[in-house]
Amino acid sequence: MTKTLNPKYNPPSRESLTNHLIPAWYDVEKGNLISELESVTKAAITADGWTSFSQDHYLTVTLQYTRKGQIQENVLKTNAVYEAQTGEVVAQEIEEILEEFGVRNKVVAATVDNAANMDVAVRRLHLIKLGCFAHTFNLAAQRIYTSNAVSNWAARIRSVVVWMKRSHMAKVVLKEKQRLLNLAQHMLMLDVKTRWNSLYLMIQRFFEQFPAIQAAALDPRLKKSIEKEK
User: Fold this and answer.
1) Of 139, 159, 173, 184, whose CB is crowded by the most CB atoms within 10 A?
2) pLDDT tens digits for 69-128?
3) Contact 2, 11 (CB under 8 A)
């Protein structure tokens, strides 16, 4: 389409985008943000460590402040981390990011989760700790998993969802049944214990798609697939 609209235009290569254009754009935006933060007197941060699907570890620091009467928020940096995330190491990593953006002496508070290393990091940085409400609420919500009445029937639903997601034929048959029954062609959802609302979402989607799931389970093609796995 690009060639049709403008035959003379040559789009940048992947190498050019990765090594030149995007880094240059980032440097410009970073400079603009640093300039904006010069007028900020007080700020707070949100810091969180997380792990990718490939088991790589990262630390993200987000800055919150007010400017011209409006609350502003900017992600300062997401850094890959390679050391054990002790409180001392996390404090050093956060401090380096704040120094890089010139706001170390302007940050007075930090919102973090309830992990012990974050408690240590906040104390070493001499910041006021504001506990993450979402994380605390998540811990409370996870108590539902300790209920036998809930865990037993949730396990049955989960086993069906896992099998439907794992089997290619099950996905094909499920879509066919969804079309025949005029149901939304939604994928089944699997709960994740650390996401407090995911159990509700899994069950909600299961009941939404139950007629299609039931019809798919009775389809001869899936029965053959089940027998092979046995």
Assistant:
1) 173
2) 899 999 999 999 988 889 999 999 999 999 999 999 999 999 998 889 999 999 999 999
3) yes
Rounded Cα–Cα distance for residues 196 and 144 (Å) = 9
- Would strands 70-80 and 57-67 be described as parallel, antiparallel, or unpaired? antiparallel
CATH number at residue 88: 3.30.420
Specify whether 186 is located in the same domain as 83.
Answer: no
Boundary of a domain, candidates 123, 139, 155: 139
For helices 220-229 and 168-180, angle between their N-to-C axes, nearest 10 degrees: 160
Closest to 62 in 3D by CA, of 42, 84, 43, 89: 43
Class of residue 13 by CB neighbours under 10 A (exposed 0-12, middle 13-18, buried 19+): exposed
At 230, list the tokens.
Answer: 């046995």
| Single-letter code of the amino acid located at 73 | E
Quick one: 154 and 125 in the same domain? no
**Domain carrying residue 18:** 2-139
